[in-house]
Specification:
This protein has 7 helices and 7 strands. Helix 1 packs across helix 7, helix 3 packs parallel to helix 4 (95-123) and helix 4 (95-123) packs parallel to helix 5. The model has no long low-confidence stretch (mean pLDDT 94). A 7-stranded parallel beta sheet has the order 3-2-1-4-5-6-7, sandwiched between helices. The chain starts with a strand and ends in a 7-residue tail after the last strand. With 239 residues, the chain is α/β, with parallel strands linked by helices. 45% of the residues lie in helices and 16% in strands.
Length: 239
């Protein structure tokens, strides 16, 4: 049986790369989007189209999806994984870092949705999987803007789910807690980075492969079933 196309943003590392491997293992053709083409092609996955696309560029995202659909058929799912986490107190944090998180975490997610959703609605099937965060459900020190963007992901996902449910399209939010990725490396506030790293070092965190398995599991449920929200974190992560 021929497997349908899966689109993954932020696929060059971390959860995105692990998710690409998880779906490739099931024989899906893939469209992988990320900032660095060498990382995408370096995954060495079969039946894969890799494009160096900034998710904040709506036209570029749409063009890449159209190109992949011409090659592999309609996109049956998108995993909106691209995101950036820049920790710090709002009073001291450069406003440019707020803009970057809003642009990537919110606008980038909307651009991914826009590129696939009309086709899914027309076909009466499809799955939108948005990577949120536990930080979108509760507050943490130094996470104010990041938490705001991830709360937006959760709100967008739930409202969108209500809009498209009658069209047979599923919308899922995956909300991981802390995971062993390089996401923290983008933070420029050294004190906030050190505090967060100390927490990560004290807890046995989930691996990116474990999160990717959760992504694949929600997708592989029967189309008539939507796992609306899946929150998963280390047992040792109390907050």
């Amino acid at each position: 049986m021929t497997q349908p196309l899966i689109v993954i943003t932020g696929a060059g590392s971390g959860i995105g790369a692990a998710t690409a491997h998880a779906f490739a293992d099931r024989g899906h053709p893939l469209l992988l989007l990320g900032r660095r083409l060498d990382r995408l092609t370096g995954l060495g996955l079969p039946r894969t189209m890799a494009r160096a696309v900034d998710v904040t560029d709506r036209a570029a995202v749409a063009a890449a999806v159209a190109e992949a659909e011409a090659a592999f058929g309609p996109a049956d799912a998108i995993v909106n994984n691209a995101g950036t986490m820049l920790l710090g107190e709002v009073a001291a944090q450069p406003a440019g870092e707020w803009d970057q998180m809003v642009d990537v975490n919110v606008r980038g997610l909307l651009n991914g949705i826009a590129a696939v959703l009309p086709g899914m609605v027309d076909r009466g099937t499809g799955t939108v999987i948005n990577i949120g965060s536990v930080a979108g459900l509760k507050s943490y020190p130094n996470h104010t803007v990041y938490s705001g963007t991830k709360a937006a992901v959760h709100a967008i996902s739930e409202s969108l789910r209500e809009e498209v449910a009658a069209h047979g399209v599923r919308v899922v939010t995956i909300a991981p807690g802390a995971v062993r990725t390089d996401l923290l490396s983008h933070t420029t506030d050294e004190a906030a980075k050190a505090d967060y790293q100390a927490f990560k070092d004290a807890v046995e965190l989930p691996t990116v492969d474990e999160i990717a398995e959760a992504v694949r599991w929600v997708y592989e449920q029967p189309q008539r079933i939507t796992v609306r929200e899946l929150v998963l974190a280390a047992t040792g992560q109390a907050a």
